[in-house]
Amino acid sequence: MDDAESLRALADTADVIINCAGPFAVTGMPVARAAAEAGCHYIDHSVEVHPVRQLYDTLAETAQRAGITMIPSLSFYGGLGDLLAGAVARGVADIDRITVAYAVTNWKMTTGAVNTARLLFADTERVGFENGELRIGFVEPRNAVFAFPPPVGPRTVIAPVPFPEAFTVPRHTSVRSVEAQLTARTFEEEQAFASEHLDSADRADSEFTIAAQVLGASGSASGTLRGRDLWRAGALASVEAAVRVTGGAVKSGVVSPGEAFDAPEFLGALADRDAFTVDLPTGS
């Protein structure tokens, strides 16, 4: 990450870079800057919101001038929630609140994921979106209950978790408040932080449900993604995006997943590749 010349040389040989190597507070900007300078499309798997904000603040104009697309947080956490929120919100007027809740079991973290989790837990400058405004500061996490649809059912969740949805969802959906949540049990499972050296087959045994709940003044809507192997789902999402951006079908600049793609269609394409099953409201 300290060798800008080598990163630029790598970017010069590529049409698109998919950066999967977190924590992105360390790896995000060096790789993204090299891609932008080389005129190379860029996609990353950031679950940390601060590197996502930094990408917008620092490289948006550069990306537009170069005619390239840069999509942060196009992975399982953050990216799929952003897309699901955008898909479910269609047809709901005057939206007050969007909640994106993750129910994850048997998550087996990589070394990069463990290091990222440590940074997220220690972060005191958390990004939230309340009453139509982006807010940055310390937020005391609380235990809440989110009613996931069957067969998961109501679960205790950490609320909020500092995922990117609070920053990305309002960029494409008019809403007053956005919050991401994660089942508390996910971090209580023994293997979550003790699985850094497993092979890919053992790591693929996770199960997940992502639920988006949209509350409007005159109605509400909800939708879910369900599947196994969150690592595979995130990888398929970023590769699908890479194919599309190199085909020239996505606008240039720094854009969130929900800004870049038609959310229901994109999620449907991933479902066709068995990344997960999709349940969206009629008309989404």
Question: Which structural class do the helices and strands define?
Answer: alpha/beta
Global morphology: globular
Number of helices: 11
Largest sheet: 7 strands, mixed
Major sheet: arrangement of strands: 7-8-9-4-10-11-13
Quick check: average pLDDT? 94
Q: Which strand-content bin applies to the residues?
A: 25-35%
CATH H-level superfamily title of the largest domain: Dihydrodipicolinate Reductase, domain 2
Q: Classify the helix fraction into a percent range.
A: 25-40%
| CATH first level of the largest domain | Alpha Beta
What's the number of domains? Answer: 2
CATH topology of the largest domain: Dihydrodipicolinate Reductase, domain 2
CATH architecture title of the largest domain? 2-Layer Sandwich
Secondary structure tally: strands = 13
Radius of gyration: 18 Å
- Taking the alpha carbons of the first and last residues, their distance comes to 41 Å
Order of helices and strands: HEHEHEHEHEEEEHEHHEEHEHHE
Low-confidence stretches: none
What's the short version?
This is Saccharopine dehydrogenase. This protein is of the alpha/beta class.
Structure description:
InterPro entries: NAD(P)-bd_dom_sf, Sacchrp_dh_NADP-bd. This is Saccharopine dehydrogenase. The model has no long low-confidence stretch (mean pLDDT 94). The chain is of the alpha/beta class. Helix 3 links the parallel strand 2 and strand 3. Helix content is 39%, strand content 27%. The strands form three sheets. Strands 7-8-9-4-10-11-13 form a seven-stranded mixed β-sheet. Helix 1 crosses helix 2, helix 2 packs parallel to helix 3 and helix 4 crosses helix 11. It folds into two domains: 99 residues, NAD(P)-binding Rossmann-like Domain (Rossmann fold), CATH 3.40.50; 165 residues, 2-Layer Sandwich (Dihydrodipicolinate Reductase, domain 2), CATH 3.30.360.
